[in-house]
Amino acid sequence: MSLHVELGQFLVVSAILFSLGIYGVISRKNAIMVLMGIELILNAANMNFIAFARFGVMNLSGQVVAVFVIILAAAEAAVLLAIVLNIYQQLNTVNVDEVDKLKN
Amino acid sequence: MASMESLLIHLSLVVLFLPLAGFTLLIFFGKRIPRQDLVETGILFTALAISIYIMVQKVFFLNVPRIDLTFRWLDLGAMVGHPGFTIDLGIAIDNITAIMLVVVTLISSLVHLFSLGYMEGDVRYTRYYAYLGFFSFSMLGIVLSNNLLMMYAFWELVGISSYLLIGHWYEKKSASDAGKKAFIVNRVGDVGFFIGIMIVFTQLHTFLLTDVFGGIAAGHLSGPLLTAAGILIFCGAVGKSAQFPLHVWLPDAMEGPTPVSALIHAATMVAAGVYLVARVYPMLTAGALTVIAYIGAITAFLAATIAITQNDIKKVLAYSTVSQLGYMVMALGVGAFSAGFFHLVTHAAFKAGLFLGSGSVIYAMHHEQDMRKMGGLRKKMPITYWSFVIFSLSISGIPLTSGFLSKDNILAGSLAYGMLTGNYLIPIIGYAVVFLTAAYMFRLIIMTFHGEPRDHHAYEHAKESPKVMTIPLIVLASLSIFVFYSFNPFNPDNGWFLKAVTQPASVVPASQSYGFNQPVNLTMVDSAQAGATLAGASFVEQPAVPTAEYHEVMEEIHYPGLALSLTLALLGIFMAFFVYEWKKLDAEKLKQRVLPVYNFLYNKWYFDELYGATAVAGTMMLSKSLAWFDSHVIDGVVNGAASFTRLWSTLSGQFDHYVVDGLVNFSAWFTGLLGRGVRKVQTGKVQTYIVFALLGVIVIFYVFRQL
C-alpha cells in the first residue's frame, strides 16, 4: 500500500513537536532540559521548511534555510552549554529559577 | 555801522573775555605757569587800558548814543505768515556802560595789584587769582549785556564767584557760613528778579532792553503789572546791593579776604544792583520808584546807625557800604538818576580805597581787625593814613572831594522830590545819614590811627605796607579828588560826567510816571525794518526833560541844601573828635546812658535774630516736618510695600510647598505605586516570560484569525 503523505500531516507532526518543545522550555527547571526544548522547537521549524520545500513554493530555499538552522542550532547549543557550565561553576546549580542575581 | 563803532564794540568783547581766558588758564594750567598772579594782573591791566580807550572814544569823541551788537540766539518755528519764537541777545555800549567798564576794570586791576602783597603765601593763591578773574568776567558781562536774560545769567555768575571768594578760607566755619548766607540771601532777591523778567517776557516777547522799552512805550505793558515788574526786577537789586530787608549778608561777607571785600562787596558787585536799576530805569513807574526810594532811604539810615556802634574795622566799612548803596538806590528812586550813578562811580573809588586801606592796616596788624586794639598807627603808616583821610572826607561829602559832588547831587534831588511830592521823610533821612556817615568814618580813623597804641606788641611790629599795596591806595585817593569828574569843585553839572550820563526818559504811561519827569515824544523805528542787524535797536532812548517846575525847585534848594549837608557833615566829624580824640565826653559813659538803644544798634537791629527766628526757623520747621513726612509717610509706604511683598512671598512659598510640591510628590508616589504593582509581573524567570509571550501570540492569533 502506498502511504500517501500530504503537507497537512507534516504540519501536524511539526506542530506536535513544537508544542512538546514549548512545554519542555516552560516546565523544566534544568537548563539542559530547557535547551533540549529549544532544540525541539528548532527542529519543528526545520520540518516545516522541508515540508514547504516539498509541497509548497519555497523549493530549494526551504532546504537551504533548514541547513542554516541546523548549523545555527549547533552553534547555539555550543554557546549555551558553555554558559550553563559557567553558571554551574559559579552558582553550583543549573536550575534556571535559582539564577536570579539581576533581581533586586 | 561806522568802523569806529564796530571797533569799540569788538574791543569790548575782548575786555569781556580777557579775564575769562585768565581764569581758564589759571584753573587748568595754573601749576605749570610761573608767576600766575602776574599773568592775571597783567590781563586785568590790559583790559583796563582797552576800557579806558573805549570810554574816551565813546564819551568824548563818538557822536552816537549807543552801539549795539545783537545776535539771534534762538529761532523757533518761523514760517510764512507766522513770525515764530525768537530770542535776541547781545551787548551794547552807551556812556553808562563805557564808564562802568572802566570802573570795574580799574578797581579789579588795582585789587589784583594789592593782592600781590596782601595774599602773598596764601594756601590757594592761584585759585584766588583765578576766581578774581572769573568775577571780573561776570561783572563785565552784567555791564555789557543789552538784555535781561544775559544780565540774569551774569548776575548769577557774579553771585557764585562772590560765594567762592567769601569762602576762600573755607577751613574757617564762619567764612564758609558767610558764603552760604550771601548766596542764599541773594537767591531770595534773584527769584523776584526772575519773576520780573518773566512778566516782561510774557508780555513783550523779548529780552532786549530797547525792545522792552519800545513795547512799553507802545502801551503793550502798563498798569499794575508794569509796576509789579519794576518792583520785582528791583528785588534782584535788593539782594545784590544788600538793601533792606536783604542787607544781612553783606557784613558777614567780610569774612572773605579784604581785597575781595574791596572789589566785590564795596565797589563792583554790590553796585550791580544799582546798575540794574539804572538800566531798566525808563520802565519804572512812579509807584515802583517810590518803593525804591523808601527802601533806599531805610537802608541808608539803618546801616549808618549800625555802623556807628561796630568795633570791627571791616564791619564798620561794610555797614557804611550798605548805607551808601542805600543812598544810590534812594537817588534813583527819587528821580535823581545821574546823581545816583555818579555816586556809584565815586563811591566805587573811595570805598574800594577804604577797604584796601583797612586791608593795609589789617596786614600791618597781623590780621587783627578789632579797632579797640589799634591806635596810633598814623606815624607808622603815613601813606595809608593820608589816603584813608581823603577817602573819609570824600564819603563824608566835604568839598574838593568826589564824594561831595555826587552826594550833594543826591541830597538835592531827594529834597526836590520831597518838596514836589510831599514825601519829606526821604530828604530828612538823607540828611540824617550825612551826619552819621561823617561821625562813624572819623570814629574809625581816630580809633585806628590817632591816640596812643592800645596793643603795644602789635604796634611795635606794624609798618607801612609794601609798594604793591600802597600804589593802589594812592591811585584811588587821587581819583577821590573832584578834578576827575568836574573842574568846578562845587557844582558838577557842567563837568563831563554829568554831561555824559543823562537821565533816560521814562517810557511808562504819563499817568504812571512822576509829574516832573514826563516822557517826551518817542521815535519808533519799525522793528521789522531794523531786523536783527548789528544796529538792531528798534527804540531810541531819549534824555529825560525835567519840567520847569523841577528846575525851579532845584535852583531854589541848591545852596540851602548844600549848606545844610556841609554843616551836618562837619558836625559829625566834630562829634567824632569831641568824643574819641579829645575825650570831652566819655564814650563808655555815653554808652551806659543809652544802653538799650546801643544794644539795639550794636546787635544790628536784631535782624539776624529776627530772620533766625522766622525765615531760618521756619525753613528748619518745614524741613523737619518734611523729614517727619518722609520718615513716617513715605518710608511707611515703602516699608508697607516691603512687608506686603514679604507676606505675598510667604503665601506663595506656602503654595509652592504644599500645592506644587504636593503635586510633584504625588506624581512620584503614584509612579512608585504603579511600579510596585507592575514589578510583580517582572519575575526574572524566563519561563514566565515565555508563557506570557505564548499567551500573547495565542491572543494575537485569536484576534487576527479572520484575516
SSE topology sketch:
The complex is a heterodimer of chains A (104) and B (707).
Chain A: H1 7-27, H2 31-55, H3 60-91
Helix pairs in contact in A: 1-2, 2-3
Chain B: H1 3-29, H2 36-61, E1 67-76, E2 85-93, H3 95-118, H4 125-144, H5 148-166, H6 173-204, H7 209-217, H8 224-240, H9 249-252, H10 258-267, H11 269-279, H12 286-307, H13 313-333, H14 337-364, H15 382-396, H16 402-421, H17 425-449, H18 456-461, H19 467-479, H20 496-500, H21 527-530, H22 548-581, H23 587-593, H24 595-602, H25 607-679, H26 686-703
Helix pairs in contact in B: 1-2, 1-4, 2-3, 2-4, 3-4, 3-10, 3-14, 3-19, 4-5, 5-6, 6-8, 8-11, 8-12, 10-14, 11-13, 11-14, 12-13, 12-17, 13-14, 13-16, 13-17, 14-15, 14-16, 14-19, 15-16, 15-17, 15-19, 16-17, 16-22, 17-22
Please describe what this structure looks like:
- With 104 residues, chain A is mainly α.
- Helix content of chain A is 75%, strand content 0%.
- In chain A, helix 2 (31-55) packs antiparallel against helix 3 (60-91).
- Chain B has 707 residues and is mainly alpha-helical.
- Helix content of chain B is 70%, strand content 3%.
- In chain B, 50% of the residues are buried.
- Mean pLDDT of chain B is 85; it is low at 518-537.
- The chains are: A mainly alpha (104), B mainly alpha (707).
- Chains A and B meet through helix 1 of A and helix 26 of B.
Shape, per Cα inertia axes of chain A = elongated
Given this structure, which CATH class of chain A is correct?
A: Mainly Alpha
What structural category characterises the helix and strand content of chain B?
A: mainly alpha
* End-to-end Cα distance of chain B: 119 Å
Quaternary state of the chains? heterodimer
- Output mean pLDDT of chain A: 87
Mean pLDDT of chain B: 85
Shape of chain B: elongated
Which ranges of chain B are low-confidence, i.e. pLDDT below 50, for 5 or more consecutive residues?
A: 518-537
Largest sheet of chain B: 2 strands, antiparallel
Beta-sheet strand percentage of chain B?
Answer: under 5%
Rg of chain B to the nearest angstrom?
A: 37 Å
Number of helices of chain A: 3
Number of domains of chain A: 1
Strand arrangement in the largest pleated sheet of chain B? 1-2
Helix content of chain A: over 70%
